[in-house]
């Protein structure tokens, strides 16, 4: 019996942003998977009209396996919005709709109905303005799946040799970063990174480059002691378990070609230490992957771009890369009974 193609749930994100535009454009892109867009079907039809694109929405039926042919059709798991959607205009009334689409996709993954989920951008501010505490996809999905700690990793495209940069800390003020990097948190981060490189990316013995926190990786303590007191002791301990960890390396030279040539991932200590290099290399096709979850979740690496919603002046590259990477990751999952 031929195994069904992976079934990927795609959430359309903030309805006033470019997420719906991307999903409409997706209807015209053939992909080797079953795609299920979790969104309001009526909204997608309205956005297609504004983009002058044809769109046929088909109601999702879990019993039907159908390849996404790119012929102008989208399979849609319909979720009603609370209020009218106007491209470019945020509306707090629709914040709960955004979270419901995420819940449906994530719970479907947990049940094995979907093999992975891919998320279009949400607008954190408008969700919080609606009185809903929300700090981002990553934290929301961690709580929903009862996951204690997750790791953000960005991938420059969807190829097997793409640059991968994980973060020891994420959205923190720079002054708060040193205190956030403890032996315990760093060890947990590296364990998650190593585990998912092996089990989700299929890399048997991943070689991970680890950046130092300070200039020149502390210069033997003259420019900071975090490498001596926290980072290097953790690396030494985990190396004894067989992990292939290189560092702590000075971040200004870590991304040189001779270092990256045989590296499977880089662990940066903070957001703007590693991501500017990756985003320069990704040319609009970066993918955000949440490591540590019991499900596969990838995402576009850009925001809602409210000013571009409904204009047709956007590129679909990051969403396609996120879907294609999700498809690749599903191939490393154990065979399902679906």
Main traits of this protein?
338 residues; alpha/beta; Isopropylmalate Dehydrogenase; 2 domains; twelve-stranded mixed beta sheet; 18% strand
CATH class of the largest domain: Alpha Beta
- At CATH level 2, the architecture of the largest domain is 3-Layer(aba) Sandwich
CATH superfamily of the largest domain: Isopropylmalate Dehydrogenase
Main sheet attributes: strand count, strand direction, barrel closure: 12 strands, mixed
Oligomeric composition of the shown chains:
single chain
Strand arrangement in the largest pleated sheet = 3-4-2-1-5-12-11-6-7-10-8-9
3D shape: globular
Question: Which structural class is indicated by helix and strand composition?
Answer: alpha/beta
Summed over residues and divided by their number, the pLDDT gives a mean of: 94
Percent in helix: 25-40%
Per CATH, what is the topology of the largest domain? Isopropylmalate Dehydrogenase
State the order of secondary-structure elements, H for helix, E for strand.
EHEHEEHEHHEEHHEHEHHEHEEH
End-to-end Cα distance, whole Å, is: 12 Å
Describe the 3D structure.
This protein is α/β, with parallel strands linked by helices and 338 residues long. It has two domains: 1-147 and 293-338, Isopropylmalate Dehydrogenase (3-Layer(aba) Sandwich); 150-291, Isopropylmalate Dehydrogenase. 35% of the residues lie in helices and 18% in strands. The protein has twelve helices and twelve strands. It has a twelve-stranded mixed β-sheet with strand order 3-4-2-1-5-12-11-6-7-10-8-9, sandwiched between helices. Strand 6 (151-156) and strand 7 (164-167) form a beta hairpin. The longest helix is centred in the first third of the chain and has 17 residues, at 95-111. The relative contact order is 0.18. The mean pLDDT is 94.
């Amino acid at each position: 019996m031929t195994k069904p193609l992976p079934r990927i749930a795609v959430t359309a994100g903030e309805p006033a942003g470019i997420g719906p535009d991307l999903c409409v454009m997706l209807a015209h892109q053939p992909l080797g998977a079953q795609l299920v867009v979790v969104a309001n079907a009526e909204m997608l039809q309205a956005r297609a009209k504004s983009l002058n694109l044809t769109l046929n929405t088909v109601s999702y039926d879990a019993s039907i396996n159908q390849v996404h042919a790119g012929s102008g059709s989208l399979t849609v798991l319909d979720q009603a919005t609370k209020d009218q959607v106007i491209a470019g205009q945020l509306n707090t009334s629709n914040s709960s709709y955004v979270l419901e689409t995420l819940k449906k996709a994530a719970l479907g993954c947990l049940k094995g109905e979907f093999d992975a989920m891919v998320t279009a951008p949400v607008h954190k501010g408008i969700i919080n303005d609606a009185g809903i505490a929300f700090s981002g996809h990553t934290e929301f999905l961690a709580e929903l799946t009862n996951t204690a700690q997750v790791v953000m990793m960005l991938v420059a495209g969807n190829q097997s040799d793409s640059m991968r940069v994980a973060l020891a800390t994420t959205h923190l003020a720079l002054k708060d970063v040193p205190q956030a990097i403890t032996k315990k948190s760093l060890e947990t981060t590296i364990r998650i990174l190593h585990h998912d490189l092996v089990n989700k990316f299929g890399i048997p013995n991943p070689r991970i480059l680890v950046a130092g926190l300070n200039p020149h990786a502390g210069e033997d303590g003259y420019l900071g002691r975090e490498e001596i007191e926290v980072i290097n002791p953790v690396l030494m301990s985990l190396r004894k378990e067989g992990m292939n960890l290189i560092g702590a390396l000075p971040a200004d030279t870590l991304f040189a070609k001779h270092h990256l040539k045989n590296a499977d991932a880089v662990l940066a200590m903070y957001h703007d230490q590693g991501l500017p290099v990756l985003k320069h290399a990704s040319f609009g096709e970066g993918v955000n992957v949440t490591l540590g979850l019991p499900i596969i979740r990838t995402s576009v690496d850009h925001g809602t771009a409210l000013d571009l919603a409904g204009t047709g002046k956007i590129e679909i590259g990051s969403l396609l890369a996120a879907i294609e990477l999700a498809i690749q990751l599903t191939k490393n999952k154990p065979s399902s009974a679906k």
